[in-house]
Each structure stands twice: as structure tokens, then as C-alpha cells.
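Customer ticket, subject: "Can you confirm the structure for FMN dependent NADH:quinone oxidoreductase?"

Message body: Hello, I'm evaluating your service for our small team and ran a test protein. I'd like someone to confirm that this is what the system normally returns, since I don't have a reference to compare against.
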Amino acid sequence: MKEVLNMTKVLIIQAHAHVEGSLSLEVGKKFIQAYQKAHPNDQIIIRDLYAKDGVPPLNDVTMKAWQKQKFDEQLTQEEADLLSRHEEWLTEFMTADKYVFINPMYNHFLPAELKQYLDLTAVAHKTFKYTDKGSVGLLKNKKMLHIQAAGSEYHTSGKWGIVKFLFRKLFRIPSKESCALMDIGSLYLSNMMKFYGIKDVDAIYIEGADAKHNQRASILNQALKEAENKAQTF
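Agent reply: Thanks for trying us out. I re-ran your input and got the following:
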């Protein structure tokens, strides 16, 4: 009998509206194609946060259902269906080995659908636990890649850009320059992954295509090459 090998699961979390000409979606597609070629035996699952039904909500129905579940009370069909969707999405996230988040930057942050997805997956005793020394992530030996497009540049200046940004803020020096600290969404996402116990965090930033419209093609091509290279070892 042949030995059954555990298949590596790669979960693609696509947090982007269904539009044409998206740089993040194009780079994400290139990454997926290159990854499939380099890792033909791995399973790729695409979770589209902009699909018709959307991300299972955390609303009044959810809160009431959790309260009933806690005290073993009878759920309505709506409540049971909603909790079932929550469990399905959470299990899918927990059982994946690798994560690829694809999204545009919205006003220095993440799309609302992605924030809602992170709220859905942040579940005590599932993805993290509380201890007397603080919270501990429960998702070990996993890795994450973040693919994000932004109209301006935030990560091109590196650590020196952050130092200059803090210096200007400290002495109240006006400036239009940006740096990584202004990309609050990326910071939040990487911190959430580390909160879950995922320490292997990487990113591909497609930046400046709007601010430098005449360089859009070269910015995209550079990101496509980066996606193809990272797919080999991810």
C-alpha cells in the first residue's frame, strides 16, 4: 500500500472587488500560477471575500446565537445556518498551512471585508488562547504572504524612511512623504498573523502606480517577477 502523504493546503484570501485592471489581482494570479508549477502536489483553495454571500457577519444574530449556544438553548434556523458558516470558514482557515492575502489598500487600511474576515478568525481557544502571561497564538509552523497594491509609495524608503518620518513628526516638520508606518492595514494584518502564532510573514507591495502613472507598467512587471520568485520557495 502506498503511503498517503499529507497535502499542503494553501489558502488564498482574495479581498478585492471584482474589477478589471487590478494590479494586486494580476500579481496574485501570477503568484498562484507560479506556485502551482513549483508545487504541483499542493492544494490551493481560493476564498473570495467579495463572493455573493460575503463574509459571515458578526451581528445581532451572531451574538444571540453564541449566547444561546453557551447555555445550550434551541437555535433558530437562521442562527444555526449562520454559526455553521462561521465554523466552516474558521475550520478552513485553521487547517491551512500557508496563507496568501490579496487586497488593495483602502485609505491606509484594509478593505472592510478583510477586517471582518480577521474578526471571524480571531477565536479564543481556536487560533489563540489567553494565559496568565498574555495571549498565545495556536497556529504554529505556518506562513503568510501579503500581496497589496497602493497608489502611492509606502515601503520603498525602508527603515531610513521610517526614521525620517518619526523625526518630522517629533519636530512637527511638514512633509508629503509616506513610509511603512502609514500603511496601517499591512501592520495590522502582520500583527494579527503573529497574534495567531504565524511568525513567517512576507509581503509583495505594488506601489506608486497612481502617483507615477507613467511608470505603471514597470511597477507591475517588477511585482510580477517578485511574485514568480517568491512562489518558488513559499
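A couple of notes from the result: The helical segments are 23-38, 60-70, 77-95, 112-121, 158-170, 184-195, 216-233. The mean pLDDT is 93. Feel free to reply with more questions.
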